[in-house]
Amino acid sequence: MAKKNENDTMDKLVSLCKRRGYIFQSSEIYGGLTSCWDYGPLGAELKRNLKNYWWDAMTNRRDDIEGLDAAILMHPEVWHTSGHVAEFNDPMVDCRTCKARFRADQLDQVRCPNKPSKSPVENNCDLTEVKQFNLMFKTFMGPVEDSSSTIYLRPETAQGIYVNFLNVKNSSRQKIPFGIAQIGKAFRNEITPGNFIFRTREFEQMEMQFFVHPSEDEKWFEYWREQRWAWYRSLGLNMDKLRWHEHGPDELAHYAKAAYDIEYEYPFGWQELEGVHNRTDFDLGRHQEATGKDMGYKDERFEEKFVPYIIETSAGCDRTLLTLLCDAYDEVEIKGEKRVFLRLSPKVAPIKAAVFPLVKKDGMPEFAEKVYQSLKKQFKVFYDVSGAVGRRYARMDEAGTPYCITVDGQTLEDETMTLRDRDTMEQTRMKAPEIVEFLEQKCR
Ligand code: GAP
Questions:
Q1: Ligand 1 centroid vs 316 CA: distance in angstroms?
Q2: Which site from 58, 107, 332, 339 is most exposed, i.e. has the minimal number of CB atoms within 10 Å?
Q3: Cα dist. 178→213, 277, 309 in Å?
Q4: Where are the domains of the chain?
Q5: Ligand 1 atom 15: residue of nearest CA
Q6: Mean pLDDT of the chain
Q7: Atom of ligand 1 nearest to the CA of 201
Q8: CATH number of 351-443: 3.40.50.300, 3.40.30.10, 3.40.50.800, 3.30.930.10?
Q9: Which residue ranges have their beta carbon within 6 Å of ligand 1?
Q10: Given ligand 1 and candidates 82, 206, 319, which is best to mutate, with the most ligand atoms within 8 Å of its CB?
Q11: Which residues have a Cβ under 8 Å from the Cβ of 388 and sit 6 or more positions away?
Q12: Closest to 179 measured CA to CA, from 168, 171, 187
């Protein structure tokens, strides 16, 4: 259960996100909707940068992975075949006294609404027997609301990839081993969502399915574990806060032969950030059986036809974004004043640089405006003339902007400007072309 100062950190982060336009509560003016969140101007930008960073690593920089954008709504049979209708359940209990509903396997991590200092177990709550609760959201296709028109909002993006395996293989002429990557919304009717955007009912996944020969599954499983670890390092996360967790036999999903989670130490404890799974030929095998479509693969390198094994890397986009925010949040006391810094990597920071004239006179705003207009063509930059320059720096530090460019008296003599680094606070004088080169190097 989260301790008081852990809650404080999350409370401060939630409040910063609202204040600076990262994340707002969904439908806030109607009192909000539990576990649903909207990304504001800076949040939308950060999310887009994060997705581009993943997409670039997974598709643009590789010859062996193709991209896909499948529909959220799929044929309902897909979810019977995949095992989600029968098995995508969480164990649930109800409290007979306060009517609250809990996940039976997480009773030590939640609080009793009647006694928030205690978990339902510590409070000796009057709990019902464990029931299985299916996490898929149901809706109806077309005007008639009966069981024949029931369809599901996808609980993972992966199935959209499996049902398109033949389409992508045939149209791209990729040969095994190759992968298919997808970013998209997924929906789970979680019993206990919470911890801000950590566990929500609507979220985005960044998933990649890599199709391999069954004899090479373990080699590729290790390869993808290494790749994903390196990706988080390149994102600039504090690697001391990341660790691997291997799934024991009782944790393995119904489709997995082996699974490792990358966990991050959030203010509320170590939790899963991404899963790397060996899904064997379970998915393609099941879809082959259900549809009669031949998922077998053969080319000149193999003696026998085989149904490919799948190594999956499955990351939550919102959860990675939360990880970036938790990792970047920092408080520093400067001259007796508490200052907040969001130390996001320049690669994903929503605003790459802010441009300021030191004062609103002597031609400084005109010069700064020109610099801003020219940088804007290549980078997301922000122009600010209002308030003392120290205040403007502080606002940008809190918003996660890594660099501030200030036009001052000397600029008008030699065209150099100061470029201030958010994290070192060092200021270096540069002319406009050097600034462009610098930002190119740091932000791309
Ligand atoms: N296709 C495999 C799969 O979906 P998962 O472990 O259930 O595996 C993968 O989910 C990732 O999706 C998780 O590691 C997490 O980052 C994210 N995720 C899952 N459920 C989530 C939820 N309710 N809210 C936010 N992110 C979630």
A1: 5
A2: 332
A3: 10, 16, 11
A4: 4-81+155-326, 351-443
A5: 316
A6: 95
A7: 23
A8: 3.40.50.800
A9: 156, 158, 188, 190, 199-200, 203, 205, 207, 272-275, 312, 314-316, 318-319
A10: 319
A11: none
A12: 168
Q: What is the chain's length?
A: 444
Taking the C-alpha atoms of residue 418 and residue 355, their distance in angstroms, rounded to an integer, is 10
Nearest ligand 1 atom to alpha carbon 157 = 1
Both tokens assigned to 193: 């969502």
Determine the Cα–Cα distance for residues 112 and 141; give it in Å rounded to an integer. 38
Which residue CA neighbors atom 10 of ligand 1 most closely? 314
Cα(172) to centroid of ligand 1, in Å?
A: 28
Asked if 59 contacts 65 with a C-beta cutoff of 8 angstroms, the reply is yes
Contacts of 233 (CB under 8 A, 6+ apart): 239
Atom 27, ligand 1: which residue's CA is nearest?
A: 316
Number of H helices and E strands in the chain, helices first, is 13, 21
Could you read off the pLDDT of 5-37 as tens digits, one per residue?
556 899 999 999 999 999 999 999 999 999 999
Q: What CA–CA distance (Å, rounded) separates 154 from 157?
A: 7
> Whole-prediction pTM value?
0.94
CA gap 286, 77 in Å, rounded: 11
Query: Which CATH number applies to 4-81+155-326?
Result: 3.30.930.10
Predicted confidence (pLDDT) per residue in 268-309, tens digit: 999 999 999 999 999 999 999 999 999 999 999 999 999 999
Could you tell me the end-to-end alpha-carbon distance of the chain, in angstroms, rounded to an integer? Answer: 40
